[in-house]
Amino acid sequence: MYPKARLDALTDGVFAVAMTLLVLDIRLPEDFHPHDQREFILGILRLWPKFLPYVISFSVLSFRWLASIHVTTISDMVSSSYARWWLLYLFFITCVPFTSFVIGRYPHVPPAIWLYAGNAALIAAVSARMLALLPDIEWGKHVEVRRQSLGILFLSAVVAIGISFIYPRLAMLAMALNLLTPLQLHWHRRRAQRRQATP
After folding, report:
1. Distance CA 37, CA 166 (A)
2. Which helix (H) or strand (E) segment is 77 a member of?
3. Cβ atoms within 10 A of the Cβ of 86, count?
4. Maximum distance among all alpha carbons in the chain?
5. pTM of the predicted structure, to 2 decimals
6. Helices within the chain (DSSP H only)
7. Beta bridge partners of 78
8. What digits encode the pLDDT tens for the residues 54-104?
9. How is the chain split into domains, by residue range?
10. What whole-number distance in Å separates Cα of residue 36 and Cα of residue 45?
11. What one-character DSSP code corresponds to residue 73?
12. Is the pLDDT at 130 greater than 80, yes or no?
C-alpha cells in the first residue's frame, strides 16, 4: 500500500513540468528579422502549426489534471497495482511534450499524427483503468464527467489516426474535439442545478 498523497504530489510536479515544456518549441526562427509590422505578423502566423498542438496538448493536460483532483477517495492509501498504473499514466503524460514537438514540426506526416494521437489514446486507456482500480471512490457526477472526458480523448485520438490515412492535414482537428470538454463540464453543472431546482 502507498499513500495517495505522495502520488498526488508527484503528479502535480510531473504535470507542471510537462505543461511548461510544451511551450519551448514555439519560437521564431533565429534568422527572423522583420522589416515592418506586416512581416512580423506573418512570421507569428506561420507558427500556427506548432501553436495548435500546444493549445490542444495544454488543454488535454489541464483537463486530465483537473479530473485527477476532482476524484476523491475515502481511503488515504492505494494498492501497489494502482500505484504502478499511476506511474505508467505519468510516463505517458511526460511523453506529451515530445509528441507535441513532433506533430508541431511534421503536422502533415501520418506517423507524427499516429505518435501524438496514440499517446493520447494510451493516456485515456490507462486513466480509465486507474479509475476502475481506485479504492473507496466517492461516486458522484464528477466521476461520470471524468469517464466521458476520457471517452472524448480516446475517440478523438482514434478519429485523428483514421483521418491521417486520408487527409493528414485535417487529422489534428479531430484532437481539437478535446477543447469541448469545458462545455461538457458546464452542461453537466447546468443539468445538476436544474435537477436541484426542480421540486
Report:
1. 38
2. strand 77-78
3. 23
4. 66
5. 0.84
6. 4-21, 37-45, 48-70, 80-105, 110-133, 141-164, 171-175, 181-197
7. 2
8. 999 999 999 888 887 766 666 777 788 888 999 999 999 999 999 999 998
9. 2-197
10. 15
11. B
12. yes
